[in-house]
Amino acid sequence: MSTQPAKTLETFPNPAPHRDFQIHMEIPEFTCLCPKTGQPDFATLTLDYIADERCVELKSLKLYIWSYRNEGAFHEAVTNRILDDLVQATAPRFMRLTARFYVRGGVFTNVVAEHRKPGWQPAEKIELAEFVPQSNTRG
């Protein structure tokens, strides 16, 4: 596998396709460029999804996210483009991408985009675990 930025998202078979289970990822180092000024924009991306047959492979996701570093993009557009690419690669039952952009000109921007597989009905609502940011670090 390459170690250069790439738009390719690799997948692997869902190890438990018979059940809905939540996959939660935090990506605290997303960067792209402001299309107006060329200055860098920084965001934390939070990806939550319920896989169907395929899951996204983490290294390819890192390289995919890295590929936006030198691209100009509005926050709303890049969030939806990333979600669309992830949905195309994995065809999940449900996927939500939350992009929390850091302050620019005194304004914080949060963009939330969702996908639901046609015909998929979630089970009765159950409160899922809340994840504290950076909860996987020791300290």
From TrEMBL:
Q: Which Pfam families match?
A: QueF
Q: Name one GO biological process term.
A: tRNA queuosine(34) biosynthetic process
Does this entry carry the keyword Transmembrane?
Answer: no
Which GO terms of the molecular function aspect are on file? Answer: preQ1 synthase activity
Q: Where in the cell is it found?
A: Cytoplasm
Q: Does the keyword Cytoplasm apply?
A: yes
Please state the pathway this protein functions in, per its UniProt record: tRNA modification; tRNA-queuosine biosynthesis
Q: Which domain of life is it from?
A: Bacteria
Q: Which UniProt keywords apply?
A: Cytoplasm, NADP, Oxidoreductase, Queuosine biosynthesis
User: GO CC annotation: what is one?
Assistant: cytoplasm
The UniProt record lists the EC number as 1.7.1.13
Catalytic residues, chain numbering: C34, D41
Q: Where is the signal peptide?
A: none
Catalyzes what? 7-aminomethyl-7-carbaguanine + 2 NADP(+) = 7-cyano-7-carbaguanine + 2 NADPH + 3 H(+)
Q: Which residues bind substrate?
A: V56, E57, L58, H75, E76
What family, per the record?
Belongs to the GTP cyclohydrolase I family. QueF type 1 subfamily.
Q: Which PANTHER family match?
A: NADPH-DEPENDENT 7-CYANO-7-DEAZAGUANINE REDUCTASE
Q: In UniProt terms, what function does this protein have?
A: Catalyzes the NADPH-dependent reduction of 7-cyano-7-deazaguanine (preQ0) to 7-aminomethyl-7-deazaguanine (preQ1).
Name this polypeptide is given: NADPH-dependent 7-cyano-7-deazaguanine reductase
Q: Which gene encodes it?
A: queF
